[in-house]
Amino acid sequence: MTGRPEAGPAGKRRGIRLPGVLLGVGLGGFVDGILLHQILQWHHMLTSADTANIDIGSYPANTVHGLEMNTLWDGFFHVLTWLAVLAGLGVLYSRVTHSRGRVWASRVLWGWILTGWGLFNLVEGLIDHHLLAIHHVIGGPFQTLADILFLVFGALLAVGGWLLQRSGGVIEIAAPAAGSRTGT
Fold first, then answer.
1. Phi and psi dihedrals of 174, rounded to 5?
2. Distance between CA atoms of residues 66 and 47, nearest Å
């Protein structure tokens, strides 16, 4: 029993790593956008644009124009995270319906979702907080510490998710008939 795809009579069988990671990226993005951008209002997509490493203008969240631009870009961000969830659900549905007779332990899916969330944090944190510096987790004297802790949290999610999915497995409850297209 492993969480990895196995070769079957009809070719390579596909697992649920890709849909899990896509779901994790999208759901992790929603947590970031809803919790940090909207509820806590620690930052928006462009709140540090005036001190960013690229010249895109200044959009402070304490001005009407700045808040309008930040809200617009937060909306684009949410569209991307929604599309990641939608793609993850579509791929998951395809994998499950084409793998009749296979059952994955929930730890496999949840592990890949956590891995995807961690990867989202790592990529978003490295690009937006450090490379472009268009926003930070929080501003002020603890800005760098908060940005680093965001990356550490992402790394812990990615490693923890990867370990969790490894502890799960796949159960073959019905062997596919010879020459069938199940699992392709």
1. -150, 125
2. 8
